[in-house]
Amino acid sequence: MLQSYLPVLVFAGLxxxxxxxxxxxxxxxxxxxxNPIKTQAYECGLPxxxxxxFRFGVSFYMIAMxxxxxxxxxxxxxxxxxxxxxxKSVFVLVEILxxxxxxxxxxxxxxRRGALDWK
Amino acid sequence: MEVxxxxxxxxxxxxxxxxxxxxxxKDLEEYVEERLLTTTLEKALNWGRANAVFPMTFGLxxxxxxxxSLVTSxxxxxxxxxxxxxxxxxxxxxxxxSGRVSIKMAxxxxxxxxxxxxxxxxxAMGACSSSGGMFANYAVVQGADKFMPVxxxxxxxxxRPEAVLHGFNKLQRLVRxxxxxxxxxxxxxxxxxxxxxxxxxxxxxxxxxxxxxxxREQRDMRGGSAGVAEEPPDSWxxx
Amino acid sequence: MSDELLRDEADVTERGVxxxxxxxxxxxxxxxxxxxxxxxxxxxxxxxxxxxxxxMGPHHPATHGVLRLIVTLxxxxxxxxxxxxGYLHTGIEKSCEDKSYWKVIPFVERMDYLSxxxxxxxxxxxxxxxxxLEIPPRAKYLRVLHMELDRIMSHLVWLGTTALDIGAISxxxxxxxxxxxxxxxxxxxxxxxxxxxxxQVGGVxxxxxxxxxxxxxxxxxxxxxxxxxxxxxxxxxxxxLQRTREVGIVSRERLLxxxxxxxxxxxxxxxWDLRKVDPYLAYGDFDFKIxxxxxxxxxxxxxxxxxxxxxxxxxxxxxxxxLPEGPWISDDRxxxxxxxxELATSMEALIHHFKLVTEGxxxxxGELYYSIESPRGELGCFVxxxxxSKPARVHFRDPSFVNLQSLRDMSVGxxxxxxxxxxxxxxxxxxGVDR
Amino acid sequence: MGNQLMPDAxxxxxxxxxxxxxxxxxxxxxxxxxxxxxxxxxxDGVLHxxxxxxxxxxxxxxxxxxxxxxxxxPATPRFAVHYELLCRERVExxxxxxxxxxxxxxxxxxxxxxxxxxxxxxxxTAEFQxxxxxxxxxxxxxxxxxxxxxxxxxxxxxxxxxxxxPIGGEPVLYTHNEIEAPRWFE
Lengths: 119, 239, 435, 186
Hints:
- Chain A has helices at about 1-30, 60-85, 90-115.
- By secondary structure, chain A is mainly α.
- The longest helix of chain A has 30 residues, at about 60-85.
- Chain C is mostly helical.
- Chain C has 2 domains: about 10-85, no CATH class; about 100-435, Orthogonal Bundle (Cytochrome-c3 Hydrogenase, chain B), CATH 1.10.645.10.
- In chain C, strands 1-2-3 form a 3-stranded antiparallel β-sheet.
- In chain C, a hairpin with a 5-residue loop joins strand 7 (about 375-385) and strand 8.
- In chain C, helix 7 (about 170-190) packs antiparallel against helix 8 (about 210-235).
- Chain D is built from 4 helices and 7 strands; from the N terminus they run αββαβββαβαβ.
- Chain D has helices spanning about 10-20, 45-55, 105, 125-135, and strands spanning about 25-35, 35-40, 65-70, 80-85, 90-100, 115, 140.
- A 5-stranded mixed β-sheet of chain D has the order 1-2-5-4-3, with helices on one face.
- Classes of the chains: A mainly alpha, B alpha/beta, C mainly alpha, D alpha/beta.
């Protein structure tokens, strides 16, 4: 059982090592000379007086939700694609088409509802 | 890594003891090991830093237009690895002061310079940022080095893009640890400065001798190790 | 529920007023008033109506130089805009008062650093009118030739940087490639790429070299094809159309009230161009058309400037065809240096040369305002002479400085992305704004 | 030689009389030089002159192309604000020049500034240009919506373009006086 998962583990390990190296190496080698101005916010070269955080409008949240919704859909299509190729059964193909059709209806509803254009 | 004056002094004294052979035992190993670590790692880092300088989009005046034409295909600065112009000071290494720095803009320039991350360099492009240029008046700071350290001064108004590229190559050699020599070092003209003649009012040969002696003393103290090559540079200005 | 009903309800909550139907300055009043009286209620603001004042400061990639805009935002919408200038103030007008008339020319051409030939012409024209000095026809043609080349170069830099702001970075490479061919021509005729000081009081300081005419004709043959390439890239580019169409519209009367001139005014449908209306130098001998827009939005400004480049190429060709022979600088020794070979022989020439070189010529007391058409609008030069060899006052009416006042009318009520597009289409040169 | 069209001398006299009828004693003098017409008026009559030139039907000077100030120091009415008006139909330019006394030297207290009515509601283009005139010469425009410095830092003291303001800058260092700069040779 472990044998079949070895490549995944090696791949994940390598990813973590290389990623970590890039992230931390900079901190280790880079010269560190903090000065009071460097830690302040950069606002086009002027001292910035923005104290409270800026609360984002509804439109940003709406677009983010829609993106997540339709992006996860694509993730589902990949394994199904492999399955259709392996089993070559029509039933799986029809099933996935129904899944996509459902999401198309959702997209048209959202589009007509006006959530896609920016306010 | 910029070295503070005291540590440099300390190193020089130890270098003198090393030369005279009265440094041994633990001091010797620690000194050699420290030199070994810094020189190779330092050289490798400097080589990387020199060949991937990220300039900052910081256009002030007419030199900014010539700076843009630096990036375009005819005078391509990408050949020297400096194509990625970053807008924010956080990701930029080189601040090219292209244009005249007015007194209202000086605090902004100083603030943006402070917000850049080390190691960082400054190139004063054009006569106006190097020395106030032709605008010797109330509104222009007479030279950016009045309020911030400047590494490279590129003359011209506006300097031709080739001149800026030459300045950029000089900066790369500076970063790589082999700073191009100023004309006084290159032609061993140290000690002929004017101030030596007028130190005591009227020109005296004695003042010149004292200056030359001071420089000779400085030269053997340095022992020719910390970067300033004794013999003329390998690339005789034709690099 | 029908879609229309939902749509109206959405509009109500959004408080925004559809900008195209109403007069642009109207929404400003009630939006800020609305915010002001809600501020009194206390901090319980919904996120949508929260107001943030931030400055698009002196060091910003999209402000075409060191211009600072204090922008008050409500979400993505710009409610209030206040430009702050002076970050590139170089005190040129004060320095000019300390220099003799010849030495003022290098100062004057460094104000608006893209249209340096125009500022030389504005200053030299003003001085020539004050001393009643007639410049020879060849000098007039050479001046018009170089000014039109400079107009094309200025529009190319504008097109490159503005398309970059909107997102088309490839335009930057193409436009600056053409700009370099023009700068080679400037270098050939005057020795320097930018700030050439080619115009002298009384004409031009040197005749054009032998191969210059052939090179300019080659450029005139090449340029229209390049403009076709730009138009092929941008004219029907969906992103460019969406970003520039129906954006930043200001009515013609409001623009005239604000004193806006140049491509901005012509894009709003007003055919006002000083070269046509009040021809100076040799513009009367050339026939060229003035491109005029209709709606006055960003897209019209882009079209007007591109068309102006084509017209400039036509003017250059006509100037080359009709280039008269003869002296390129007037021979009035009181204001113009005698030719070098004469110095060896005639005594008067030596005296004139010596006087001009040491003290410079004196202009009788008086003042004059002389204006020409620069790539950004009416560029006026006002000189007060007090009889000495140094001007008492030199003032430049810079088109970018006056046009910048219309930025507020264009951008208030729109999104931030439209503000950046408007600023690009307005084409301010901060050197000219701050002087 | 000036081929710029302008109202010729008699035309200018007619304009001056028209203004005089509206408000006695505004026009001090009219002059035509280098092909340019100039109306020299008293500062308190400026708004009347501008609105007269703009609104009377046959004048039509509706475009203010430039507003700039000038300092004629040795001359007694020291300051002058120039209004370059343009009639776009007939392409004629006229220059209205308002002479301003410098109150500082008449009654001694230095911070008193010359004052003038602001013409922003007549010509909105004057907003920036009046701020510039205030910033460089210290001429206060009464009724200006937002009279602040435009080119110099907000807290700058002094009016830079007045003729008695030093031009500033630093002396250039040559070999004979380089000894003054401390550590120059470093």
